[in-house]
Amino acid sequence: MTLEPSRPEAPQRLRLLSSALLAALVLSSCAAAGSNSGSDPGREFADFGEVLEEADGQTVDLWMYGGDEQGNAYVDETLVPAAEEFGVTLRRVPVANTPDALNRVLNELQAGREDGSVDLVWVNGANFSTGRQAEAWRCNWTGLLPNMAYTDPNDPLLTTDFGTPVDGCEAAWHNAQFTYFYNSETLPEPPTSLEGILDWAEANPGRFTYPAPPDFTGSVFLREVMLSTAGGADEVPLTYSEEAFDNHAPAALDALSDLAPSLWREGNTYPRDEQALNSLFADGEVDIAMTYGPARLTELVASGALPDSTKVLTLDEGSVGNASFLAIPVNAADAAGAMTVANLALSPEQQSAKADPGVWGQFTVLDMDRLDSDQQSLFTQLPESPVVPSYEELSRNAHAELGADWVTELDDAWRRSVATAP
Amino acid sequence: MHLGFGVLLGAWIVLPLIPLMLWFVAGQWRAPDILPGTYSAQGLIELFSPQIQSATATSAALGTSVALVATPLGLLAALAIRRLPRTHSRFVEVVLLTPLAIPPFALVMGANVLLLRIYTPSFSAVVLVLAVAALPYTTFMFRSALASYDDRFEEVARTLGANARQTLAHVRLPLLAAATARAAFLAFLVGWGDYIATLLIGGGQLRTLPLILGSAAAGSGNEQLTAALSLAVIGPPLVLLAALSAPRLRERIRR
Question: CB–CB of A10 and B79 under 8 A?
Fold first, then answer.
């Protein structure tokens, strides 16, 4: 039984409570304010001296994929202290997916905010091209960086990013090479071409699979199969067209549909990503796996996450390579600081430290011919990885990434024809 | 019969935690081994790294702030609903429940542009959005407490000469204390375990445990760290829950 609830003192009490709430909110606002040190984000700089001057005292938020412990450690222990010497405080913001960073930037732009909280993003491929379409990246700034002189201006890996022209909208950071690896204990004589891998998989049911596109790694594998069934990377135009798709995609999709019954679990299911494929490989369920981040293999084997018998498989026809970059959002509050960090990241000292397999093992984007002998020796004296061959060997016969439109079209077609096949 | 269901329910909750505990101490663990091949204390060491400690503090601050905002608001909402005629109160209840029906991502994306436009500082913005997400829980905690609340206790106190403040302090608050603790605990959990609002609305300024956990879980070979972080996320709320239920358990035993 409830009694008449209205009491005269109640409204007063409500008012008291609401003002207490308001006070709590105001207090928490004060505690959080004052983290943006930037000024005039749209400012153009005449030379790098101006950049350095403005950068002094700025805090740069670098948003990057945080699932790579070695990468996190490199940034925290090597890049952050080096940035401090320029008066730049570098903060690493770990994200599970790079699109989270882009979403934040697009939200800020939509709200008309010019004091953006994202200063630097580790990016390439689809995220870069999406950002370019939305005009979310600051452009024409990499020419200011003195250390760009160490890179080859005609290096195709650095001038286009998955078919999207770079146009000074991002500064190169690492090179990567799509790499297959195998368990030398269970597979003493591995195939030496992609066609060979598919034949071997058919002859050894259940010992091979690939992540389901549109997973990043699975999607690369799908494109590699298309280039292979087309008779080589030169046969397929980099720019997407319906005609080119109709010419080349069906053969690849047919090959993968035919292969499906011989895959792990008869192709009824696929690993969801590279990580899941790695566990299958580590657990001895499959004999071959693949990655776009061969840099990590050394550490994964050393830590026991992958077996000691893991070996890299270099294919006769080569594999696809790409570069990844650091991009600055157009509304970054600390753009000068971000440029300072991007320049620093391109220095021979940082590039060689990062290339050490014990540190991160990421391949350099610098052109050795443009370095003096002291700088070259920084790279030649690096320890060799017991697992991963040199970049020269890994990137032999390498080809470039297809345009970003290819990626979505192929992924869709795979889902329609291969994933749903009986 | 009851006991059987109890055991099943207990197993359903505890079983998934067992592999987590094992990964926490496992150096190397490969299928088809049932137990880890080697053990290591690396996970324990990671738990005490400055990064995880500061993330724990940030998570605790976020959870507490959400509880501080959402608990009194929930009480106010429950009091208001109680006062409304039944037809109106139903409508208000539905409105208060909607945050549960909207996917968090949609809520976050929608609110983010507005919050950015009015220059809300990141910490307050996250607290505001999460308080909305926590409001259904706190409101309904107080709703159910007030349903069995007898106003005559207050009237007796007033008849005996207590003034309004004394009635509030000695009758109403003690009677609602258990509900307040439960509501605050649920609101705390909303802030403590959130990922998407912390990331997108916080704009990378807040590094909480779930944020570090999410990015660690996205990579190969991080099983031990991921397990350590998961335990760091699960542990403190369990301790809180135990602290909340301990006095009542003791009371029950005394009776």
Answer: yes
